[in-house]
User: Fold this.
Amino acid sequence: MNKRPRIGLYTLVALSVVISFLPIVWLILTSLKNTAGIYAWPPQYWPDPFTFDNYVKIVTESPELLLYVLNSFIVALGCTLLTLTIGGLAGYALSRIKMRWGAVLMVFILAVSMFPPVSLLPSLFQNFLKLGLLNTYSGLIIAHAGLFLPFTVWMLASYFRTLPPEIEEAARMDGMGLMRIFLTIVIPLSWPGFVATGLIVFIFSWNEFPLALVLMTQNAMRTAPVGISLYPGEYAFPWETISTATVIAIIPILVITAIFQKQIVGGLTAGAGK
Amino acid sequence: MTVVQLDRIGKSYGGFKAVEEFDLTIHDGEFLVLLGPSGCGKSTTLRMIAGLESISTGLLSIGGAPMNDVEPKDRGVAMVFQNYALYPHKSVYDNMAMALKLQKMPKAEIQKRVGDTAEMLGLTDYLARKPAALSGGQRQRVAIGRAIVRTPKVFLFDEPLSNLDAKLRVKMRMELQELHDRLGVTSVYVTHDQIEAMTLADRIVIMNGGVVAQVGSPREVYDTPADEFVAGFIGSPSMNFIDLRRNGDDGWTSVEGHLALPPLSFDTGQRADLRLGVRPEHIEILDPGADDGIGMTFDAKVLLAELLGADALLNLDVDGIRLLARVSGTEHPVAGDRLRIRFHEAQLHAFDCESGRALERGVPTLVS
Assistant:
């Protein structure tokens, strides 16, 4: 039949997999080389000698890496929970309550997110300084939440719109209030939407650099991307340390994605309607 | 005693009138059907009774108490939705028990009520299942059960059978009828299917474009439709309409073709034209030689014959007019046959050409 378009499709998929995974593969390979191997010319493709020395060294000599990862985890988790709570409520209100300016409000929310976050930094820094939010988890969590809320509102609002409104109407007839409907009906039915959105926000927050760099100035409060990038090198850039630390910082994200991936696919609304 | 009273009830969105104000009293234990094409305002009316839609004008009372500003759960009504609207993440038991749990009813009482209702509907074996593991008919039965356990004063049905296949629909229709006979609860039922309306209803409210066209028993709306819309909507296949113009002898001639009719026993007043209606099942095919000259008889030619099984539909050319006739399916005429047909005056309907209102039967007014 039509084999040709499928071959094209597979080629494209293979190409995108190679393009997106090559840097990560290179990163992992680099973390397994010794310094000579990293600077060797022509470049070494396979580590020779193949060594875990970098991992041993980083765990024993730079305990602050684990602190950076922990900081990132706290900030990303806090940001995800805060964003999903506010974004879920806002998205539900915007998708279900008839408002005169509802559509305009949605566009306005999106427009806000079009400002480059860096342009907000000076005023954000000054205000956080006054409020005592610099070098606090809540400070960076609030800043990140502000950054990712428009996206969350849009994602969740459009997910809520796909739910048949009759289920919520039936709940109203059964005697539930709006908040109870949201908590016991809408959230369980939108679980895949919450997981997918939450995962993306978590990764965004984990990787976010400029705000984390400026708002967390104490070494003990740094997040993984900032902390790793500031690893000191006396005479040369410590590639082996940076790549090893980065691999370690990626692991939590990979684990979380693996856990929740199955949930995203779940078709929970099956059987609700037709 | 639960009487539902609609007093000048109407709904408008901005300047658009979705439902024109009307009065209606739904009697205790009555099965009332709101019938009409999509967008006619029937669902909006039902949702106003349910409390899911605000009432723009007028007063709604259920069992004598005004209900305009009462929350849906406190109106004593239960609703069955077209797409079942079950909670997909909860078991059949929890779906049916939800309203009772929210009323803080004792657990033993809930179990008994849900158990009894499940047994009545044949759902006992499925109580632990999720809706996704049920067939369409079973799901709709759960939705009906969810309404029954609340022992509401009024049942509201919003096209509950539309999502079922044809065979199941007929079965569920009969089950609904038996259920209503057993429970005797005042019911309001919305549908666009005139067969459902005719079979289930004590009274039918036919709506068109937000306006109530007629309220009456199935017999009344079939026999004496109030206007052309009702006449065309009730009955399948729908009524034949023929535009007529008064001729010199106070008889009538068709605007198209050259069908000639004698003076008709309708209160036509001074009208120069009217629209005649005759149902396909009311066109009599005369046996050869049986034409005794009584009544209005015409020559007809069969253009097309469609066998439906028990019946056949004949597409006839009668003096240049196309008419549809419904005849018995056994040895029915075939395309090309020439026939003699008869209209019975008592089975004819006449409508005003402009307003579409039905003309009363009466003495024909002669103008010449």
